[in-house]
């Protein structure tokens, strides 16, 4: 059966709800962040010699037992990450929290961007995931990045959120929440802009402690 075309959640508060994955479904839930390497209005020389745009995909997660965590490039850079079958600051696919960040893409030039994978075996343990993106060491607005996020859930159309129309200069955008329950899966557009991780944390009451980091 042919799936529907992608669903675009254009405005904050819009959501898409779907039933739980079928029993035995073993395909990943995948979040992908993709963007342009250079600002859309950059000159040829600027593109040739200037620095590219570096976006980072990050995750807040909460388990049904109350455990919470954070995964992004600042957490697992400089040798603090690991493969999907390990438990590191990069998360873990094969073990709790069942969420694994594939790795850092510093330019977006691969046309792939950054990926976070969620293991369907762990959905009974996960309460919610919030995805965010950060502009790393850049003065551009989100509109100049052409950034788009896609959430791919097996058996359902891809869900897209476009940050390429936003002119806010907040360096962090929390764009999406996925909630898991015994009823189904809800994906909602949560687009809000913040000065950084501590500011977003305060807005959504995660309660983490932060210190200066680098990649």
Layout of helices and strands:
Elements: E1 7-8, E2 15-19, E3 29-34, H1 44-49, E4 55-63, E5 68-71, H2 73-76, E6 91-92, E7 99-101, E8 114-118, E9 126-135, E10 148-152, E11 159-162, E12 172-180, E13 184-194, H3 197-204
Parallel strand pairs: 1-11
Antiparallel strand pairs: 2-13, 3-8, 3-10, 4-5, 4-9, 6-7, 7-8, 9-12, 10-11, 12-13
CATH fold group:
Lipoxygenase-1
The CATH superfamily turns out to be sav2460 like domains
Q: Overall pLDDT, averaged?
A: 85
Can you tell me the residue ranges where pLDDT is under 50 for at least 5 consecutive residues? 42-50
How much helicity do the residues have? under 10%
CATH top level class name: Mainly Beta
Radius of gyration (Å): 17 Å
Largest sheet, spatial ordering of strands: 1-11-10-3-8-7-6
* Beta-strand content bin: 25-35%
Q: Judging by the overall fold, what is the CATH architecture?
A: Sandwich
* Strand element count: 13
- What is the first-to-last residue Cα distance? 44 Å
User: What does the main sheet amount to?
Assistant: 7 strands, mixed
Domain tally = 1
Structural class: mainly beta
Supply the number of helical segments. Answer: 3
